[in-house]
Amino acid sequence: MKGLLICALLAGLAGAPAGEAFAAATGTRTAVPAVATVHYRSADIDGVDLFYREAGPADGPVVLLLHGFPTSSHMFRNLIPLLADRYHVIAPDYPGFGQSGSPDRATFAYTFARYAEMVDTLLKQKGVARYAMYVMDYGAPVGYRLALKNPEQVSGLIIQNGNAYDEGLGAFWNPIKAYWTEGTAERREALAGLVTLDITKFQYTDGVKDLTRISPDNWIHDQALLDRPGNKDIQLDLFYDYRTNVPLYPEFQAFFRKQQPPTLIVWGKNDKIFPEEGAHPYLRDLPQAELHILDTGHFALEDKLDEMAPLIRDFLDRKVATVN
Question: Cys bridge to 62: 52, 131, 204, 233, which one at CB 3.0-4.6 A?
């Protein structure tokens, strides 16, 4: 066996892949799963650097992954390789998040409408005319604004703790709603605690039964980006702009009713930000939606990927790949 290993190593050095060389030397054949290559790219959108992760076949059905607060496309790092064998996966970072640019607030409007416009422009630049969307947290108002603009382009929805109904705005939102009502400097500054390390860690750990499944890298990574100079005010601008999403809820719901996109709902029931009460109303307008309530919190992919990935793959294979 030692001699066979040496032969395999020498063959590998000569140019043959080590796995193939070993198989040739031993007469055995071991199936090795293909590993997806993820590309890390940026696009210039109106002078702003928009970072995105991309993987999968260029001609595959497109799956657009839209992240929440306070993270970035980083939240999809483990899911992307599980889809990329068949699907063309695109996961952007909004300006002020992740690796995207953070233009000055004096010259750039940090709004959900602007984010939707920029993602739409990215898709146009890449020639994407049809796509399924995974929407989570902030990804919901970004994605649903895209859907209002291009309803015929949406091939399916994967909804994870992202709101489109009044029932989903519970007690956590009361200080934010107070800021919407008054818009004062005092109300604004009262929200500054939401961009601190304690709250970032809370979002990853609250409602999770097995904390050994949650990497501390998550909140360290996110907080380092939140702590960049000027970023706190970007986030406070977005808290205030979220008020513009709520009046659009009836339009989002009308889109659901009219278009009836195939929909998978995978929802962490212990999330205090977007509680389970926000999941069930979707069935009023999307009665054929597949609903799965998971025993976890806000960032469900972190500890429930083993449950969610098979559900997502099965849904996409049945409802999206067959119509693209």
Answer: 131
